[in-house]
Amino acid sequence: MEKIADFFTIAEKLECEYRTTRMSDGMCQSVASHSWNMCIMAIALRPYLKTPVNMERVMKMCALHDLPEAITHDIPLHRQNPDVMTEKHERESDAINKILGLLNDDEIKNVLSEYEERKSPESKLVKALDRLDTAVQHLCARDLSYVGEYDNNFYWKLFFSDKFADGFDFEPVLRDVFNEICRRVSVRLKNELGIDSNVFMGK
To answer: Smallest Cα–Cα separation from 91: which of 118, 69, 113, 110?
Structure first.
């Protein structure tokens, strides 16, 4: 029971770990909130999916995919250069081993490995939901001006890039939903900040 209690105290830290994205109340989004949003999106989108998925597996993956960040902390995308990514993977591997040492359950390791390999329909869906949640935050954030503050509009160039959109192509409903969010975010950018989203296309 001591180890389970220790695990709970580690997992709780995801509620205190904050991402770059902002929410509708102007606050930064927590990693735990991000994972919860992904679960909600999976539930909402399930009836529209063309590829059958194991929803229990999807939910586990949504809840667990960022668990190592309870120890390693979140690293914003604009800081993820090759050297940082190498260190990130090493630290996350150590974090997973520490977490697994507290629980008598190989399922967590299997779920995290499946997510990283990105071969199963479930893992591909969860990765798409990971991206889609960022898009939703761009739609819901109280003030969008913060998005352009990093590295010469890094996040806007990413959001409107073909590469980002291509991550939703394996399920038509995902691409349709992303396109609608993209359209609404473009309208917000124009109306609220006077920015034409076309300037970011192809960047």
So the answer is: 69
Which tens digits make up the pLDDT trace of 143-189? 999 999 998 999 999 999 999 999 999 999 999 999 999 999 999 99
Sign of torsion over alpha carbons 148, 152, 154, 159:
positive
Question: Are the beta carbons of 46 and 170 closer than 8 angstroms?
Answer: no
Give residues with Cβ within 8 angstroms of 86, minimum separation 6: none
pLDDT value for 64 = 95
Q: How far apart are CA 84 and CA 41, in angstroms?
A: 30
Domains (range + CATH), the chain = 2-200 (1.10.3210.10)
**164, 178, 141, 189: which is closest to 41 by C-alpha?**
178
- The 3 state secondary structure assigned to the chain is CHHHHHHHHHHHHHHCCEEEEECCCCCEEEHHHHHHHHHHHHHHHHHHCCCCCCHHHHHHHHHHCCCCHHHHCCCCHHHCCHHHHHHHHHHHHHHHHHHHCCCCCCHHHHHHHHHHHCCCHHHHHHHHHHHHHHHHHHHHCCCHHHHHHCCCCHHHHHHCCHHHHHCCCCCHHHHHHHHHHHHHHHHHHHHHHCCCHHHHCCC
